[in-house]
Amino acid sequence: MTILVTGGAGFIGTNFVLDWLKAGDEPVVNLDKLTYAGNLRNLQSIANDTRHSFVQGDIAEPDTVPSVLSEHCPRAIVHFAAETHVDRSIHGPQNFIQTNVVGTFRLLEAALHYWRSLEDAQKNDFRVLNVSTDEVFGSLSPDDAPATEENRYAPNSPYSASKAAADHLVRSYFHTYGLPVITTLCSNNYGPYQFPEKLIPLMTVNGSRGQALPIYGDGKNIRDWLYVADHCTALRSVLDRGRPGEVYNIAGNCEMTNVDVVTQICSQLDDLSSGNAVEPRRDLIEFVSDRPGHDRRYALATAKIERELGWQPQETFATGIRKTVKWYLDNQAWLDEVTSGQYRQWLDLNYAKRA
Ligand SMILES: NC(=O)c1ccc[n+]([C@@H]2O[C@H](COP(=O)([O-])OP(=O)(O)OC[C@H]3O[C@@H](n4cnc5c(N)ncnc54)[C@H](O)[C@@H]3O)[C@@H](O)[C@H]2O)c1
């Protein structure tokens, strides 16, 4: 038996693949295009592990997924591959449509064709797990209850609209063709190996270097934060015991404003790398012009996954953020490699006009 992971050289995919091989012996095939967000260095520790096969390829190319499926015959697909950064989707939505919508469509077509060719027993056990986001529900008001799986989709950015489109296609392949798909909607993940364009690694890296900490708008936007290892455990449970055709929310039960998140990162940095002239690092916080259409609040209710699969997050924000900040401080070589080159040009494009 084997599973296929798409996007397994990105942030969550990397954590999932490493976690998967630690938890059991089932091999994993990892299909990734290696965009700016994919980094094979993340998988260095399993470079010689015969249970891991890496295939570089684009899910939106019509022949890619079919050929991986026929060569490796997986019992399940865990689909992470996507363009994921909201700001990039504002500067250039094209890649988001191509990978998130067309790519997911190609993957579903390939999965359907493959699934139909399986024997009955394998057909029953086969799963496609589509990893999606709380952003598909759009912005919640302060008084709204956290979104349940029944909430209406109302995506507001090109990124969330492309993920919503993909989720609708996934749903339709269950209802129309019976393909055993499951969608999970998760909140903001944080932890090791996250590309430092997203809030937590960006602020950690800048803070550790004594550089400015630019926060959009008034910093009061609220997100729920999920430690990536908790997310991986939840995904394994959904793959094992989730019901085909269903949607499961996965969140950390931890809503925080951006400014509170950054302040906590500053405290951890002051504590873990003391003796620096820039302390306290919260003095480095600068409020910059807001992201267009910036959603105010996301929050997810997790009663369904708790009730049906017995999953709950193990990490609090205090414990998770400490591990995370420590990981970035301890992995300077990884950071130096990632922060050279294209990443710099991207930061200039995004932040230069936000005086
Ligand atoms: N990071 C979060 O907080 C978060 C929150 C909610 C949902 N999600 C979802 O989880 C999934 C993984 O997110 P992430 O943060 O790890 O993303 P990421 O940007 O770190 O990694 C994405 C990976 O997909 C690969 N990829 C991109 N286009 C591809 C293509 N056309 N073909 C094959 N591979 C391709 C990239 O090379 C990269 O390795 C995404 O679907 C994302 O929408 C992430």
The name of the CATH architecture of the domain at 3-192 and 227-253 and 293-314 is 3-Layer(aba) Sandwich
Q: Calculate the terminal CA-CA distance, rounded to whole Å.
A: 54 Å
User: How much β-strand is present in the residues?
Assistant: 15-25%
> Major sheet, described briefly?
7 strands, parallel
> Regarding CATH, which class of the domain at 3-192 and 227-253 and 293-314?
Alpha Beta
CATH topology of the domain at 3-192 and 227-253 and 293-314: Rossmann fold
Report the order of strands and helices.
EHEEHEHHHEHEEHEEHEEHEHHHH
What is the residue-averaged pLDDT?
94
Annotated CATH homologous superfamily of the domain at 3-192 and 227-253 and 293-314: NAD(P)-binding Rossmann-like Domain
For the secondary structure, the number of strands is 12
Global Rg: 20 Å
Secondary structure class reads: alpha/beta
Roughly how much helix do the residues carry, as a percent range? 40-55%
Describe the structure.
This protein has 355 residues and is of the alpha/beta class. The chain has a domain at 3-192 and 227-253 and 293-314: NAD(P)-binding Rossmann-like Domain (Rossmann fold, 3-Layer(aba) Sandwich), CATH 3.40.50.720. Helix content is 44%, strand content 15%. The chain has 13 helices and twelve strands. Strands 3-2-1-4-5-6-10 form a seven-stranded parallel beta sheet, sandwiched between helices. Strand 5, helix 6 (158-177) and strand 6 form a beta-alpha-beta unit. Helix 1 (11-23) packs across helix 8, helix 7 packs across helix 11 and helix 9 (258-272) packs across helix 11. The protein is globular and about 65 Å long. The chain binds nicotinamide-adenine-dinucleotide (NAD). Nicotinamide-adenine-dinucleotide is lined by residues 6-7, 9-13, 32-35, 37-38, 58-60, 80-84, 99, 103, 131, 133, 163, 186, 188-189, 195. Nicotinamide-adenine-dinucleotide binds at residues 6-7, 9-13, 32-35, 37-38, 58-60, 80-84, 99, 103, 131, 133, 163, 186, 188-189, 195.
